[in-house]
C-alpha cells in the first residue's frame, strides 16, 4: 500500500486556524494525558504526525479530530507548547471544509470577507423577501400573523430546512465515504500496526483488508442517536462535567427552538396571548433562557481567555455565538414589543429577527460550526462500527479498546 505525501498540507491546514506543531518532538505526553484517546484512536500525537508528514489521505480518513472534545489538557501538558488541543480544533475546521462538496465552507473559514459577505447576501435576500411578501401593517393593535402570515412563514421554514438538510447530509455522506471507504484499509492497518508495535503479538499481513459487515452499521446505530442526544464523551474527561452540562442545556434549547419554529410554528406563532402556564409560553421561555445564558457564557469565556480552550479564538468561533445571541435577543424584543402593544416595533423587530436567524442558519448549519453537531456523533458511531469489525476479526487474546 502506497501513501503519497502532500508537502502543501501543513500550509493548507494553517489557513484554518492555529497549528503550531513544528516543534513537536513526538514525546506522546499529549496522548497519554488525553482521557479520550485509546489504542485505536491515539490522538492527538498521531493526528499531528499525519500533518507534519503530509499524509492527507490518512488525515481525511481519520475520525480522531471529532473524538477530541477539546478539554485543553494536552495543550497544558505539552513540553514544547505546541498547543495540540487547538491544533485538533483547527483540524475540525479543515475537515469540515473537506467534507463540503460545494467548496463554500473552505471559503468561509479561510476568509472573513467571505463569511461576512455571505451573511450580508443571505440577509439582504431575506430582507427583499420580507419587503415584497409581507402582509398589511395593522397599527391599531399587534397582529403579527397579518404582517407575517404564519402559513407562509411555515412553508418557507420547511423549504429552508429541506435545502439545509440536503447540503448537511450530503456533506456527512462524504465524511462517511472518506473515513469508511476511501481510507478504510489504511486506517484499520494503522490501528493494527499500532497494536503490534505495543507488544500484543498481533500479526497481520500489511495488504490484508478488514471487511466491515453491513449489519454493524445497523446494530451500532444507537451509538449515534445516543451520542447526539447526550454528547456523553464530554464526561470521559472529569474536568469537562460542568462544560458538558452547559453544552447539553444549550443544545437542548437550540434543538427545542428549531422544533418549535420548523415543526410546530402554526402552534407556536399565534396572535393569542396564552396564560403563563401554557406550554407554548414556558417551552419558548426555556429555550430562550438557555440560548441567552449559553451564548453569553461562551462569549464571556472567549473575551476573558482564562481557560485553555478559550486561549485562541478563530473568527468563526465568534460568529456562531454572536449570531445566535443576536437571534435570541431580537426574538426576546419581538416578544416584549408584542406584550407592550407596540405594533410597528413588533413588525420591524420580527423582520430583523428573521434576517439574522436565516443568515445564521444558511451559513452555519451546512458549512460552519453548527455542522459539528452532526459530525461528532457520526464520528463516534463510525468509530464504534470500525472497532466492532476489528474486534470480530482480531485473533483471540487481542483486545480492541472502544471509545
Ligand atoms: S506533547 Fe507536545 S511535543 Fe509531545 S507529542 Fe504531543 S504535541 Fe508533540
Ligand atoms: S483537547 Fe483534550 S480531548 Fe482533545 S486531544 Fe487534547 S486532551 Fe484529548
Gap between N and C termini, in Å? Answer: 27 Å
Structural class: mainly alpha
Cα-atom radius of gyration: 23 Å
The low-confidence runs, each spanning 5 or more residues with pLDDT under 50, are: 185-189, 194-208
How is the biggest beta sheet arranged?
Answer: none
Number of helices, counting only DSSP H or I runs of 4 residues or more: 20
Shape: elongated
- Cofactors, ions, other ligands: iron/sulfur cluster
Any idea how many domains?
A: 2
Topology readout:
Elements: H1 9-14, H2 29-33, H3 45-52, H4 56-60, H5 64-67, H6 73-77, H7 84-99, H8 104-110, H9 112-133, H10 144-147, H11 150-182, H12 184-197, H13 214-219, H14 221-230, H15 241-263, H16 265-268, H17 279-304, H18 315-340, H19 343-364, H20 372-393
Helix pairs in contact: 7-8, 8-9, 9-19, 11-20, 14-20, 15-17, 17-18, 18-19
Residues 33-34, 36, 43-44, 68-74, 84-85, 88 line the site of one iron/sulfur cluster (SF4).
Explained architecture:
This protein is mainly α. The protein is 67% helix and 0% strand. It is elongated and about 70 Å long. Mean pLDDT is 87; it is low at 185-189 and 194-208. Bound molecules: iron/sulfur cluster (2 copies). One iron/sulfur cluster (SF4) is lined by residues 21, 24-30, 45, 48, 78-80, 82, 84.
